[in-house]
Amino acid sequence: MTGSGGDTRELSTGQAALWALYRLAPESPTSNVVTAVVAEPALDPDLLSDAVAALQQRHDLLRSRFVETGAGPVRLVRPPGPGGIEVVEVGDVDGADLTDLVRAVGARPLRLEQDGPLRVTVLRRGTDCVVVLVVHHIATDGLSQRIVWRDLGDAYGLLRSGVDVDWSPLTGYDEFVVRERELLAGPRRAELADHWARTCAGATAALLPTDRPRPAHRSYRGAAVARTLPDDLTRQVRATAVAAGVTPFTVLLGVFEALLHRYTGQDEFTIGCPASLRRGRALREVVGLLVNPIVLRSSFPPGTTFADAIASAARQVAGGTAHAAYPLSLVQAARPDRDPLVRVTFTLLARQSDDTLSDISHGFVGHRVRQLPLPYDEGQFDLAVTVYQGPDGALFAEFNYDVDLFDAGTVSGLLDRYLDLLGVACAEPGAVVAGVSLVDDAEQRLLLELGMS
């Protein structure tokens, strides 16, 4: 269908939920996915602009506008055209100052109605530059970001070599929307809805104690703390997974749920875990929102061991992923009290050897390119935990948090206790979760001193 300003396409259920969030807070950057690379020597801005045009030609979501109509929200696909980029001279900045500049670029809201979901900014220094991609979550997910960088680099390399980029547009996201609508109109919908109704009946989201009262309205401002897991702890996680017959992700998740149980005092609670909706070859190369958070519900009756928690996590993930096609927004809407089911999320991002965010330099021929580390999903939830797995097997944990609720020191301590519990769980899987101390030696001495004063 053709409408004013382009072809009119329907939104997926996940996109519609993000559009509703955007309409509530259009000035908020909470759904901005920000990634950046440093390139030396600096990229040619004209070639980069043409590469962006080729990227948008291939992935029509990136050249769409989103608007509200009488029948609901739709996206308008604009015809292919020149790629727009911003070039900003920033002088000789480095380190934290450079990161602050990049974060400022990412914090600017994307105007979905006027400009669409993509903004490319080049911060040019003396001999190099930083390319900052800001993509609204309504048009991307974790794997899509890898595809975007790969295609942008490949297009730039071809153009630099004097070769035209001749890519056919990928329309797979429209196929996904049609498939989703068919599922929700068919008999499987009742089966999926029943599963989530039973899973979430009487459920309460994990509620961490906060440093400040929860505000009436969220500002969606976030920050992050992070740690690289020690090599010996990473090896222990893998060994524990093998011994239990589960994945390392399951070990990491089960221990995280044990941490929440100890900190919240809740014996039963729910968290969210993003699940991929890429099914079949047609969606393999598509850029778009192709994840759905599934609800994981854990239970910690008296005597629960770490082995029990890990086994429970495995069952939660298996049941959730088997029913992941049913949108979380519909699960949430069916709740009588409408209290959020998800305030905390946990996910693992595995970076394989061909991951273009880990080794992005293959496309930008003639330039040395490295990724600039940036937090992800800041402020969208009370706490969003991501464990990154590098191609070398190393593990890196990042705790993104809502700054309206938590201080950095509180979240840093929470991350430290998580690593402590991981060590205990791997060394003694049969240890009772409730019996493990959450106080380190220094804190124990301080408490003893306070008790003696």
Automatic annotation (TrEMBL):
InterPro entries: CAT-like_dom_sf, Condensation_dom
Domain Condensation: 10-448
A Pfam family of this chain: Condensation
Gene3D superfamilies associated with the record: Chloramphenicol acetyltransferase-like domain, Nonribosomal peptide synthetase, condensation domain
CDD domains noted in UniProt: LCL_NRPS-like (cd19531)
Superkingdom of the organism of origin: Bacteria
Name of the protein: Condensation domain-containing protein
Native organism: Micromonospora echinofusca
Taxonomic placement: Bacteria, Bacillati, Actinomycetota, Actinomycetes, Micromonosporales
